[in-house]
Write a structure and sequence with these properties.
This protein is α/β, with parallel strands linked by helices. The protein is built from 5 helices and 11 strands; from the N terminus they run βααβββαββββαβαββ. The longest helix is centred in the N-terminal third of the chain and has 15 residues. It is globular and about 45 Å long. It starts with 16 loop residues before the first strand and ends with a strand. GO terms for molecular function: lyase activity. It comes from Aquamicrobium aerolatum DSM 21857. Keywords: Lyase. InterPro entries: Aminotrans_IV, Aminotransferase-like, BCAT-like_C, BCAT-like_N.
Length: 221
C-alpha cells in the first residue's frame, strides 16, 4: 500500500501534522532545522501543501518570553499553520523514568508512523494500559515482538561500549528529531531490539527533542 493511501481523506479536517519543540530563553528553538526538515518530508510524502515562508512567519509571530517554552507548530493539509507557546518545566537532573511494555502493538508496515501527526489512537491506547504512577512512559512493540518506541519518546539502549542502539525505522516508529540528531552525530545507531535487550542493557534512555534524554528502567511488575 502506498503511504498516501493510508492518509485520511481531505474531508477529515482533524488530521494534521505537528512539531513539538523547545524554545530557549534567548528565543532559539532547539534543533529547529531537523524539525523543519521532518515537517517538509512529511508534507511531501503525505500530500500536504508546504510553504516555508508561512511556517517561518508563524514561528516569528510569537513574542520572546525570556524563559524556556514548549512550542507547538501545526500544519494543515492546505498549508495553513499555527504556532503556539506554552509553559515548560524541564525534567529534573537525576530523574529516572519507569517504563512498562504495552499489549497494544504497532505495525511495521505502517509507514504513516514515521510522521508526527494527529493520528495518535494507538499511542493513547498504550498509555491507557498503565497508571502514570506505575509507568512514566509506555513502550510499544510491533507485530513481530520488536521494540519500537514510547508513546511520546524514542528509545535508546546501551548494550556495549559502542554507540547507543535505537530501534530501526523499519520496525515501525516515528522518525524522532532527537533520535535523528543522535544518529547524525554518531552517538546512536539503528538496530533491531527485543524486550530481552532491555534486561541486558547497561543503560536505558528515552527521550525527545523537547525533553532531551531521560534515564529509564523497566518496571519489574
Amino acid at each position: 500500500m502506498r503511504i498516501k493511501d493510508q492518509v485520511p481523506s481531505a474531508a477529515d479536517t482533524d488530521f494534521y501534522l505537528f512539531e513539538t519543540m523547545r524554545r530557549e530563553p534567548d528565543a532559539e528553538i532547539v534543533r529547529l532545522d531537523l524539525h523543519l526538515r521532518r515537517l517538509e518530508t512529511a508534507s511531501r510524502e503525505l500530500g500536504f501543501s508546504h510553504d516555508p515562508g508561512r511556517i517561518s512567519d508563524a514561528l516569528a509571530s510569537l513574542p520572546e518570553a525570556g524563559h524556556q517554552q514548549r512550542m507547538r507548530l501545526t500544519l494543515q493539509r492546505d498549508g495553513s499553520c499555527c504556532a503556539q507557546a506554552y509553559p515548560f518545566e524541564p525534567v529534573a537532573n537525576g530523574t529516572i523514568w519507569t517504563l512498562a511494555i504495552a499489549a497494544t502493538r504497532l505495525s511495521s508496515t505502517d509507514r504513516l508512523l514515521r510522521h508526527k501527526s494527529s493520528r495518535r489512537g494507538v499511542y493513547d491506547a498504550a498509555r491507557a494500559e498503565f497508571a502514570a504512577e506505575t509507568a512514566q512512559e509506555v513502550l510499544l512493540l510491533n507485530e513481530k515482538g520488536e521494540l519500537c518506541e514510547g508513546t511520546i519518546t524514542s528509545l535508546f539502549v546501551r548494550l556495549d561500549d559502542g554507540p547507543l542502539k535505537t530501534p530501526s525505522l523499519q520496525c515501525g516508529l516515528l522518525a524522532g528529531v532527537l533520535r535523528q540528531s543522535l544518529l547524525e552525530s554518531g552517538q546512536a545507531e539503528e538496530a533491531v531490539l527485543l524486550p530481552d535487550d532491555l534486561a541486558h542493557a547497561t543503560e536505558i534512555f528515552v527521550g525527545n527533542s523537547l525533553r532531551g534524554l531521560i534515564r529509564a528502567r523497566l518496571n519489574s511488575l
